[in-house]
Specification:
By secondary structure, the chain is of the alpha+beta class. It has one domain (2-88). The protein has 4 helices and 6 strands. It has helices at 2-7, 19-25, 48-59, 80-88; strands spanning 28-29, 32-35, 39-42, 46-47, 63-65, 72-74. The chain has a two-stranded antiparallel ribbon with strand order 1-4. The protein has a two-stranded antiparallel ribbon with strand order 2-3. β2 and β3 (39-42) form a beta hairpin. The longest helix is centred in the middle third of the chain and has 12 residues, at 48-59.
């Protein structure tokens, strides 16, 4: 998808529930927030890091990049890494 979009100089809107897929193919994100069935709004486009950080913070989970495979991984709740990232305000890993 990313190669196709870039080769034609176009944009694409991808809606998916798979965080790892969105991490892999996204350059920027629009986050939808609100109360399901009642109200909601969309943010302006955010950088991938800013958008992922905002989204993961709303879920109260943190992501790290696995040292061996370099794939994103969810930290275990209340682990040392989870606590450190939450304390620093970085719910999404930093490259």
């Amino acid at each position: 998808i990313q190669r196709f979009v870039r080769s034609y100089g176009k944009s694409a809107i991808i809606i998916d529930h798979d965080i790892q897929l969105m991490d892999l193919i996204s350059d920027s994100l629009v986050i939808f927030e609100g109360t399901p069935g009642k109200e909601g709004h969309a943010t302006s486009p955010k950088s991938k890091a800013e958008g992922m950080n905002r989204f993961l913070k709303s879920l109260d989970i943190t992501y790290r990049r696995d040292e061996t495979s370099l794939r994103p991984r969810v930290n275990k709740t209340d682990s040392r890494l989870d606590r450190n990232q939450k304390q620093s305000g970085h719910f999404y890993y930093r490259n």
